[in-house]
Design a protein that fits this description.
Blueprint: H1 2-12, H2 17-21, H3 25-31, E1 40-41, E2 44-45, H4 55-62
Antiparallel strand pairs: 1-2
């Protein structure tokens, strides 16, 4: 938990690597030279839940 708390604060205050991570998964992957590793759809991060049940989410990914 200590490491996660530190990482969350680095992102919140945009300190060090947290500045890159604050821009999202797509920007972080591009920063490290591997955009193919970003788990995104059109630059949007994939949620930690199944969006298929939410019709509005499908429209968001489609457009």
């Amino acid at each position: 938990p200590d490491g996660m708390t530190k990482a969350a604060k680095m992102v919140a205050y945009r300190e060090g690597l947290g500045d890159v991570m604050a821009e999202g998964a797509d920007a972080t992957a591009k920063h490290f030279g591997h955009p193919e590793l970003a788990m995104t759809v059109k630059g949007q991060g994939i949620p930690a839940y199944d969006p298929r049940g939410l019709k509005g989410m499908g429209m968001g990914y489609a457009t």
